[in-house]
Amino acid sequence: MILLRGDEVRQVVADRRYSGKFVVRLTPEAHRQLALEAAEQRVSLNRLAASRLVGA
After folding, report:
1. From CA 35, how far away is CA 9, in angstroms rounded?
2. pLDDT digits over 8-53, tens only?
């Protein structure tokens, strides 16, 4: 097993290729609340969740 320091781990993660897909599990109530909010804002649930995750 090779142990990496924090800066080395960060570089390994930064160099990876990413698909843009990210699965998150929520409680049914949290899912419902986000779906309602997305509908009220007339955006997709995906768009709402993505904007929350990146802090936009």
Report:
1. 35
2. 777 878 888 889 998 999 999 999 999 999 999 999 999 999 999 9
DSSP 16: S
CA dist., res. 32 & res. 26, Å (int): 10
Distance CA 50, CA 3 (A): 32
| R_g of the chain computed on alpha carbons | 16
User: Which letter, b or e, does each residue of 13-49 get, where b requires 16 or more Cβ atoms within 10 Å of its Cβ?
Assistant: eeeeeeeeeeeeeeeeeeeeeeeeebeeeeeeeeebb
